[in-house]
Amino acid sequence: MTPAGRRAAAALRVLFLALVAVFVLLPLAVVVVSSFSVDETGGGWPSGFTLRWFQRALDHEPFRVGLLYSLEVAGVATVISLVFGTMAAYAIARHRFPGRELLRSVFVMPLSLPRVVAGFCLFVLYASLFPAAYGTVGGIAFAHCLLLMPFVVAVVGAALAGLDPALEEAARDLGSSAGRAFWHVTLPQIRWALLAAGIFAFITSFDEVDTSVFLMPADTTTLPVAMFLRLEQQQDPTVTAMSSILIAGSLLLAAAAAVAARRTGGALGGVGATAGARTTGPEGSAEGEPTP
Amino acid sequence: MSDRAIAVRSLSKSFGRKDVLNDIELTVRAGEFFSLLGPSGCGKSTALRIIAGLERPDRGRVLLGGADVTGTPPHRRPTNLVFQQGALFPHMTVFDNVAYGLRARRTGRAEITRRVAEILDVVGMSEFAGRAPSTLSGGQRQRIAIARALVGRPDVLLLDEPLSALDLGLQLRMRRELRRLQRQTGTTFVCVTHNQSEAMEVSDRIAVMNDGRVEQIGTAEELYRAPVSRFVAGFIGENNLFDTAPDPGSPGRSRADGLTFPVPGGGSPLVAVRPEFIRVVEPSDEGAIGGAVVRSVGFLGARIRIVLETSTGREVLADTDAHSSTVTVGAAVGVAVDPAHLTVVPADGRAVRSEGAAG
Amino acid sequence: MTRETPAPALTKEGRGRTRERRVAYALVAPGAAYLVLIFLSIVLLLVSYSFRTEQTSRLIAPFDTGTWAEALSNPYNLAVLWTTLRVGALVTLLTVVLAYPIAWCLLRVRRWWVAGLLMFVIFSPILVSVVVRSYGWMLLLGHGGLLGGVLRGWLYHEPGVILALVHVELPFAVFPLLASLRNLPPGVLEAAADLGAPPLRRLRTVLLPLTASGIVASAQLVFALTVSAFATPSLLGGGRVTVLAQSVYQNIQQLRWPLAAAQALLLLAIALAVLALFNRLSRYADVRHRSPEGGDSR
């Protein structure tokens, strides 16, 4: 190809990617802009700006309760799935035992389970056997672990696979018990993977609708469910303001996770890896530099 | 400590269906440099890891200083291991790496500082205490790995292919270094290697392993001069091996590949002759045990390597003094062997169970 | 050490291994027990509920195939099933066709910070709530919205649902394609060009076959996520477009748990069938292109 042709091709690629970026960002941008708009119906260019909707969103009882509710659920679910997911990932990565391969696939299986099915199933489970769990932080966090666990096992498992098992053996050989060796040697090296997995798990749980919607009464719900239920009725500037807050929070955490991902060599890759765990493996880092 | 630093008794281990160790017997004396030598996959590393406590045997016992430690976890054993690639903790400085074992054993702070400084001095790495392992060269990393394992003053230092990751020149220097460290500290060293010249240079005694078994235990010289099995005869140094059959014409002689060997007792033994003990003579020489044709002549410095081919097409290696040889390629020559340097390898060389047999 | 296992003949036989296994099982036990409980309850509860007709939360009820008959023959339920599959197929097709050039171009961005920024732009929406993203499309397509004029009538109809779903699933489609394009053996495209193949022929004969496994993975992921999507079709469909996931939810609201159970099982069956189908496809794709995977290199 001639240099001019090559430059033209490069320009076309940039133009295409710019259009894609607009497509990806437009729905988010319109939410953010509308949340500052004085107009009751958003979506167009605002005729004036105000912070009124933010005030109103934070005063709106279901949103305030829902925000706290969501934070509690996400916190509990993240901690549980990090602890048990890391334990399982460690056993699968480091121990030889019969049924290991089977367990490896058991832990990614929930990815193939439609969230609505999981929600309905847990709803029936609670309704038939544990009525007390319905609509509680514990009951919803318990359900969310189903979505978070495969993710933690995949990301932490990938980090452990990249670690030389001799390091932990060296620590044990030098006088540390197996537990202390894990704590002193393995944990510090997978901390970025744990952080990335934790952030993604937290956001996933915090944003969850499809499963959660089955597990709580419509009057007290987590924040995204409250927003969903309200949007089913009507469009509303307070939802717009709340959405802006969520976008800001998500992007902040996404940036943090991207930094953590860089340290581990690709935890955003881990997102895709989890999502695509049953097909392609975690190959390379989504945040890495492009190969020329 | 008893005179026996390590005793390994009828040790067996398998991974899945593969038998990695098959009824191993070893005794390592206190203060000696002992090597486990064998090709990759012969089970030598597994044996070392079992002694360290990192693997558990399926059967058999490990005794350290007379005490049975078979069920003892690695952190309660008086052994320390130098890993193949060093296995330095990448998130700790050199000092913290070396101090790790002392801290794990709750040594006092002042004592840690003193002993780390001391051992870093011994391995010549004092000025690197504050560095991160990733900034060190391969040889430096290995020195730190050795220092980390030695600082706790283990009864036995175990080394798993400690030099294999280094380039050749560095390997040669580190061999002398290892030997010096062993003498200086008086620690029992058990070193796993697949490199026979390394094992022969540094070790007091060597156990040759093959296919999960110990073939022979002895000094380098014993292994070289009196191999007890076909494997050892072929693995240690270069050798010409002949599967002989009795010579029907003359009792007390056996034949193979057109050559006739004086074998006391006759029969069909495996006969081994080192290249340096094969002489190239005139075809008519009365000491000749057969004829051959010179295929190639290579100059090796002090010696000349002559490749001969017997009438059956068998290659025979012969080394001669570079200053006295005048063979030409294609010439028909006679092959002569000094009967004193002809080794008859026992038919069942594997049955080296008793320690006294070789050591 | 720990408890002595009775092994009379060979006292030391396999003791180490048994202990290691015990530790490993103890570590995986909580997570595995949890997953097994959920899987079991899916099989037992959902199946049990789908074979009854009366609304009850008791575990035991008379066996009845009436619910299944309704789920599979009632025209409305069949329409829901058909909509689910149609939307799934269209979204998958559109998303993969859009994602392929995106992945291709992303790998050709020279400046690392531009590439990093674009990656962030494309992947970070995964972290923004689906409700928020769908709401963004409601605003855009709504009356007075930025696109409300051009795309009139898309909101609360199938095109709007499809558009929003493409937006939601796009990052998931890009990821496997990026991985697959990165694994392309270096030089093959230059070699094809050198041998005289024009661009379209290079695409058809070299690029697509060599990245077939990535395309299959991408399509599998998007289809699986789309057929089970709930919030986006609910919000952008506005009650006029109903897919299986919504129907399950609505049937619970209307206290028709048995029908919800049957439809949940249908949804699960579609998800698993898609998984199996695409796994088979990817095996076929892999025959033509075995990507060199190292396995664990210990």
UniProtKB/TrEMBL annotation, chain A:
CDD domains: TM_PBP2. Residues 67-257 form the ABC transmembrane type-1 domain. It comes from the Bacteria. The keyword Membrane applies. It is found in: Cell inner membrane; Cell membrane. It is a multi-pass membrane protein. Residues 271-292 are annotated as: Disordered. Belongs to the binding-protein-dependent transport system permease family. This is ABC transporter permease. It comes from Streptomyces rugosispiralis.
Automatic annotation (TrEMBL), chain B:
It holds the Pfam family TOBE_2. Residues 6-236 form the ABC transporter domain. The keyword Transcription regulation does not apply. SUPFAM superfamilies: MOP-like (SSF50331), P-loop containing nucleoside triphosphate hydrolases (SSF52540). SMART domains: AAA. InterPro entries: AAA+_ATPase, ABC_SmlMolc_Importer, ABC_transporter-like_ATP-bd, ABC_transporter-like_CS, Mo/tungstate-bd_C_term_dom, P-loop_NTPase, Transp-assoc_OB_typ2. One of its GO terms (molecular function) is ATP binding. PANTHER family: SPERMIDINE/PUTRESCINE IMPORT ATP-BINDING PROTEIN POTA, SPERMIDINE_PUTRESCINE IMPORT ATP-BINDING PROTEIN POTA. This is ABC transporter ATP-binding protein. It comes from Streptomyces rugosispiralis.
Automatic annotation (TrEMBL), chain C:
Coiled coil: none annotated. Its main location: membrane. Residues 81-278 form the ABC transmembrane type-1 domain. It is found in: Cell membrane. It holds the Pfam family BPD_transp_1. PROSITE patterns: ABC_TM1 (PS50928). It is a multi-pass membrane protein. The keyword Zinc does not apply. The chain crosses the membrane at residues 23-49, 79-100, 112-140, 160-179, 206-231, 257-278. Keywords: Cell membrane, Membrane, Transmembrane, Transmembrane helix, Transport. PANTHER family: ABC TRANSPORTER PERMEASE PROTEIN, INNER MEMBRANE ABC TRANSPORTER PERMEASE PROTEIN YDCU-RELATED-RELATED. Belongs to the binding-protein-dependent transport system permease family. CysTW subfamily. This is ABC transporter permease. It comes from Streptomyces rugosispiralis.
